[in-house]
């Protein structure tokens, strides 16, 4: 629910942007438990406050390379109940793939320059907190262009489009609406993706998550 109270920890090394985001989130009814500027401070804040979501920039002190997303991977391992929303100007494919290694639920990756409205950002926070995914299409596209795509290359253009939307967290019904096709048509495309990825139906396996993870792993390897 978009009106659910959220406890947020924010990691952003730009003081101006960090302060602005704190004001924005509080104005939208979120509790900002901590706002920090380094990866170690982020890890400490998550351990102390156990937020619903951690908002993480990738490039943070001291090297301004990948400290933030490394910390996000650590949070994913040590505090799996905490949602992760990477909010950055950059796509870091290697560590992004590791972030998704144990499932796509509760993770978001948004590019700062492509968020047109504050409502989009807040909606993404709620989606991630509720166990969904919030992936910028440009992030998905860059991952696709970044590495080996053996199984992805076997997909038809429509199957690839459906898989991209799956990776962004859309349901079959939502995909049908976005593509202006029937839900049954989407189901057929999804089934084709499963077949081409060699994902067999079992009672225990979630093929949808496995397909997205395989897509992200092959694209970002």
From TrEMBL:
HTH luxR-type domain mapped to chain residues: 148-219
Residue ranges of domain Response regulatory in the record: 7-127
Pfam families linked to this entry: GerE, Response_reg
Keywords, alphabetical: DNA-binding, Phosphoprotein, Transcription, Transcription regulation
Alphabetical GO biological process terms: phosphorelay signal transduction system; regulation of DNA-templated transcription
GO MF terms, alphabetically ordered: DNA binding
Matching SUPFAM superfamilies: CheY-like
4-aspartylphosphate: residues carrying this PTM: 57
UniProt cross-references to InterPro entries, sorted A to Z: CheY-like_superfamily (IPR011006), NreC/VraR/RcsB-like_REC (IPR058245), Sig_transdc_resp-reg_receiver (IPR001789), Tscrpt_reg_LuxR_C (IPR000792), WalR-like (IPR039420)
Matching CDD domains: LuxR_C_like, REC_NarL-like
Protein name: Response regulator transcription factor
Organism: Streptomyces actinomycinicus
UniProt lineage: Bacteria, Bacillati, Actinomycetota, Actinomycetes, Kitasatosporales
